[in-house]
Structures are given as C-alpha cells and as structure tokens.
Design brief:
2 copies of one chain form a homodimer. By secondary structure, the first copy, chain A, is an alpha/beta fold. Helix content of chain A is 28%, strand content 22%. Chain A has helices spanning 18-26, 38-52, 67-76, 85-93, 110-119, 129-138, 167-179, 202-217, 242-256, 269-272, and strands at 33-36, 56-60, 79-82, 101-103, 123-126, 143-147, 183-188, 224-226, 262-265, 276-286, 295-299, 318-321, 328-334, 343-353, 361-365, 386-389. In chain A, the strands form 2 sheets. In chain A, strands 1, 10, 11, 12, 13, 14, 15 and 16 form an 8-stranded mixed β-sheet that branches. An 8-stranded parallel β-sheet of chain A has the order 4-3-2-9-8-7-6-5. Chains A, B: One of its GO terms (molecular function) is ornithine decarboxylase activity.
C-alpha cells in the first residue's frame, strides 16, 4: 500500500488485504462503492478480543451496521452497543441475545426505551436526571451506567461536551437512579475517537479511577466500567497493532479499577475501518488559474456521500491510484456536488499523480467505518454510497 | 411567529403561513418531518418572477427535489438548473422540456453528459479545459457557459473557490470551447448563498461586467449572463422582500450588461426555504453540571438528519415551541446521534423556554431548502428526514 501524505509515518506494518484487492480489481463499479471484507472483520475482532481478555466487546453498531457484519460478529461472540431502536432491532434480527445488547445513547426517545425494554434490553446509558426518569418509567428496574465527561483527550477526533456529566453530578445520579428503582452499575466515558496510542488513555483512566473510588466511598457497590471506544484505525499515521493496543489499555484499566467485576469496551472504527475500501472515480482535474500551484481533483464521492469525517480535514484517508508510480504534485480534493462545503482536503493538500485524469479509479483505504450510513439520501441527486460485503 | 435569537432584527414582515400551521397543528408525527406547502412555493415563484422580469428562472433543483415541487414549478413556467443526471431525469419526468433544463454542475461524469445530451439537454456549465473536452466528446456542439470565481462575497454562507476559474482562464476557455466545436454563450458566477441584501450584489456584478466587456472586446459574441443563486430566505435577520430584491438585482444586471440577450437566475433556497417547516421533538433537556449556565437541549433531528447547514453555526434556524410565553434561558442545541459533531448551536446558544422538556414539539421554521436530501441514509440507525408535501 502506498501512503501519499507528506507527513505519514507509515511505519505500521500494513498487510495488503489481498482478498479485498482481488475483488476490487476484478469488478467495475458505476458509482462510489464501499467493499467490506468480512474475514478482515473477523481477524480484527479476534485480535482485539485477544488483547482485551476478560472485557466484553460491545461493537459500536453505528460504525458500520451492514447486517452481514453484525451476523459475523454474533457468530464470533461479540456483544453490541446500539445507538437507536433500529440498531437494536438489527442486532436482534441478526441473532444477538438481548442480554448482549446495550442501549448506549444517552439521548433516547421514551417510546424507544419502552420498546427496547420489551425486547429484553436491560442495560442503558444515562447522563442526566431527565433521562433516568424516562428509563425508570419505561424500563423499570434495569441496569444503568452513568456517562462522564473526561476532558483530557488526545484523540484525532476529540469529543465535545455533548455526552456525559461532571463528577459531582455523576455521583448524584447514582443516588437518583437508586431512588428511581433502577440499578446503577457503573460508569462509562470515551477517550475520543481515533486515540492512536494506548498510553494516551492513561490521563483519562486516572480521572475515572478517582471518580470510581469516590463512588465506592459513597457506598455504591459498582460492578461495571465501560471504557467506550477510541480504538484507532490506520489512516497514515502510526498506530499500535490492535492486540497490543487493547492489552495495554486493559492493563491500565485493571490497575485503576482493581477487582472490577465487569469491563466493557465499545470498538467501532477500530473493528471495521480497515476491513473496507471505497472504490471511487476521478470526475475532473483542473486548475482555477494558469498561476495556480495546486490542481483541483474532483471525485465522485464527497463529504455528503460517505466521507463526512473529512469535516475539518480531521480524518485523512489514504488514496491509491494506478498512476502512483508517476511524479506527484499537490492537489485540493473535493466531492462532486454543487456545494462549496463539499471539499475534502484543502488546507493540507494531498500528493497525487500529475498524470491523474477524469475516469481514473481511486481506492480510498480503510474506509469501513462511519461512511455508509453517514451518506446522504440523495444529495444533489447523487445516490447513497453503495455497499458490497464479501 | 416568535423569533428567539438575541440579535434577530425580525423586521421582515413574515406572514404566518396558516395553511402550513393548520396542517402541522392537526397532525402528529412520530419522527422528524419536513412539511412543504406548494402554495407558498407558487407565491414565491410569482414574487421572484415579478421582480426578475425578462430573466429566466432556473430553479436550483438541489435545494429541494420533491417531485411535487418540480411539477408545480413546471406548471408555473419555471426552468431548471440540475446538478446531476438524477435531477435532470426528475425534471423531465415531471414534465419539464429538455430545452428548459441546464446541466449546471461544472463536475460531470462523462457518461452523464452523454446521457443528458441524448435526453435533449443543450446547455452545460464548465470551468476547465478537461470539462470542455468531456462535453465536446459527449455532447458535441452544445452551448456552454463558463463559470467564474468572484471573490467579493458578503453572503452568510460564502462559497469557496471550489467552482469557477479566474478571468484570464475564463476568456481562454471561450476560445477553447470554440476550437472544440462548442458554442460558448456566456458566463455564470455565484454571489454566495443567502446574500441577504440586493446591494451586496453590486461588487460582484461590477467585476463580472468588466470580464463580459473583455470577452466582447476579444471578439466573443456572448448572449447569456447566468447570475446564479444567492436569493435569501428569512432565518431571523432582515432580508429584502423577494420581488423588490429580484428587481433591484435585475436593474443592476441590466446596467452592467447592456442589451444582453438572455439573463438566467438560479434561486433555490430563495424559492423553497420559507415554504417548509420541520416538526421535531425534544428528546432530552439536561445540564452537565450543577454549575452549568446553559442547558443542553437534544432534538430528534440533527446535523446528519436534515440540518446539515448548521455546520459552523452558519444558518441559524428559528425555533418555535408551545412554551414560548414562558421565561427563556440559553441552551446549547444538539441532535440525537451518538456523534459529538452532531451539535447545532453551541458558540451562540439559543434562547429557549426554561420549561422545555422531553416530548415537547419544536417547529423549525423556513427549513424547506437543503434539508431533505442532505439527510443521511441511516446515521446511527435514525431514519432520513420524512417529507410531506401539502
């Protein structure tokens, strides 16, 4: 695999995913298409599980809810973290047991809580009193974990304050949950998506360990620490291999939560991103002026048709073309729509072959997470990202 | 209509859209739903047409491609600006004549150019040599207009350099088009979406007038000036009424392009935004800490399910609830998904009723443009924005 980013460390030992490459090479695609390799999902699940040890993996379904992926993960013994009623329904349809599915969104419609309860879901997230009240009414007696804000992120895609509450409120919500007849079992947090190195977890875990201890001291007999996601994918900058990464994280967890009964982890991106490649096409290569240093490369896929995570140029995908042996030059990369916000990489241009032209195929590597369902319904009349699972 | 933004001038005479309000009041919705009033579309078309006079309106289909809207606009005599093959197909299906549909995307798939040509489309946009070459091969002899970059925007949603080329290149492309056997008829530009006052067009038109003259001086007998979109909708800040706005713009155009044979305008937002209201629901109201000044209000709709234009807090929609008579307080507003980027208004919080709670209905006004098709396919398991046309 060729890495084109000027600053890419590229020292992560990427093995060419030959089954994926063979499939892609053997087929033509008349629109942008995500090809997912189930065997790579299996390999990644096993690697993460080997590192995570006794922790339960709850796959974050939102990363890629292709039914075949869910079914494969059910077969492998994975549990699931669902963001919505539809994701819960999907998991159950694909054979997951209700006891293995958590409703991890802290913002739930009351009727969806009731529906989930009726389906047998017994573990819910919350970060506020009003949410606990909704859960108590519509899913009486279930287990809840309280999500905390941890503000020491070093992630590439750091999280806002949207989810979680502060320490004092979290401790208070444990009491509220009890008063409401719920079973407060523990805490969750999120280190931030795409946390590239295991050691970046340490400050977050330190903070969480302190809050955990405070809860114990206040008389709460907690049993669950949900460490959320953050498991990285390779986008050109060095990351730890999945097994080693997961093992390091769990070692740090065990040290800070001695004897905790149950550990949950919610990899999403880290499970499926590297199992997918998007096959795209160059629509146009142009300059705006004879004096322009950069070319503009327009693809048939953009921010509104699958590459939403290029917002703010946060996630830098790796591109691969058949002309990568030719001389390279800097390009601004944009999507095909009549929308000026549909620009992928402009502040930090990409190096692409000088010979690139309309009609050329572009492979966008490691795009198995947060692409297919982020795609718009019909933006500018363009169809949603197609998905093929092999 | 109540306007809640602290800085809202709100002096634009908004007439309560009673047919829309009656429909919304009489129905319940179990998911976020955009309700579009065709009569308001008609009213707006007539107002814009009255102001634009001899200019042809090419409705920018991407703003809202609901088939009923296209059919209504066909009946009213509108022409259409299409961004893709699918949008062209939609217009033709709804009764538009091929001669009244322009293919305005400067980034087109070669096979789509050929398809459009076979459907009878004869007017294409371009801003680069490679695009002209594609058009010459797949749609020989058609009329083309060259899009320019105009960098003096005062719009609320200014455009990037994604579309258009500079003056020298534009003049050169007229020659290139001729050499390729195409018919270069004129220029297009875009002042930027949501250009609130007609006088903001003047600097752009001055620049374009100069380029137009240079082309004439170089021997090009141009017949078309396409002034693009930019026609505003009311989002809380004062705008000119549509007829007066359009008339002022056309007066400025006539003064700078004396005797031009054909003027095209491409309103999208300005045609349909005010004809729609989204019915949403509060999922949760919470604080992150006892000390927080702001509440967080989570809706069942967010950036990935229809409100994409809240990116960077650019477009500030107006919210309306049944509790608007109660005391107000500042709120951060976010969508329902497990995605930290799904926050609508945080830097500039909104004033919402202190009594607001989960289950309350929220009307989001003037959301008829750039909402329905921007909605994601199934982000986090949430369904796309539903659309009802009345």
């Amino acid at each position: 695999m060729t890495v084109h980013f000027a600053d890419a460390a590229a020292s992560f030992p990427v093995v060419a995913p030959s089954r994926l490459d063979s499939f892609v090479a053997a087929h033509s695609f008349d629109k942008p298409t995500l090809v997912m390799d189930l065997d790579l999902v299996s390999r990644q699940y096993r690697a993460l599980k080997a590192g995570l040890g006794r922790a339960d993996i709850h796959y974050a379904v939102k990363a890629n809810p292709a039914p075949q992926i869910i079914a494969r993960l059910v077969d492998l013994g994975s549990h699931f973290d669902a963001a919505s009623r539809a994701e819960i329904a999907l998991c159950l349809e694909q054979g997951a047991e209700p006891r293995d599915v958590s409703f991890g969104n802290t913002i739930k419609r009351a009727s969806d809580i009731a529906w989930a309860f009726n389906q047998g879901i017994r573990l819910f997230a919350a970060d506020s009193e009003e949410e606990l009240e909704k859960i108590a009414v519509h899913a009486p007696g279930v287990s809840v974990y309280i999500r905390l804000i941890v503000e020491v992120s070093q992630a590439d895609w750091p999280l806002s304050r949207k989810f979680g509450c502060d320490r004092d409120m979290a401790l208070q919500l444990l009491d509220t949950a009890k008063t409401l007849g719920l079973n407060p079992v523990g805490f969750s947090f999120h280190v931030g998506s795409q946390t590239r190195r295991a050691e970046m977890w340490a400050p977050n875990l330190d903070v969480m360990g302190g809050i955990w201890q405070a809860a114990q001291d206040a008389g709460h007999d907690l049993s669950l620490i949900n460490i959320g996601g953050g498991f990285p994918a390779f986008y050109g900058e060095e990351i730890d291999a999945p097994k080693a990464y997961a093992a390091k994280v769990i070692d740090m967890v065990e040290a800070r939560f001695p004897g905790v009964a149950k550990i949950m982890a919610e990899p999403g991106r880290g499970m499926v991103a590297e199992a997918g490649v998007i096959v795209a096409e160059v629509m146009l290569v142009s300059r705006k002026s004879e004096r322009d240093m950069h070319r503009w490369v327009y693809l048939d896929i953009g921010r509104f048709s699958g590459l939403a995570e290029t917002e703010g140029e946060a996630i830098r995908y790796q591109f691969e073309t058949a002309r990568d042996g030719d001389a390279m030059g800097p390009c601004i990369v944009a999507g095909p729509s009549c929308d000026s916000a549909d620009v992928l990489y402009e502040k930090r241009p990409m190096q692409l072959p000088m010979t690139l032209r309309a009609g050329d195929r572009v492979l966008i590597r490691n795009t198995g997470a947060y692409t297919s369902t982020y795609s718009s319904v019909c933006f500018n009349g363009f169809p949603p990202l197609a998905v093929v699972v092999i």
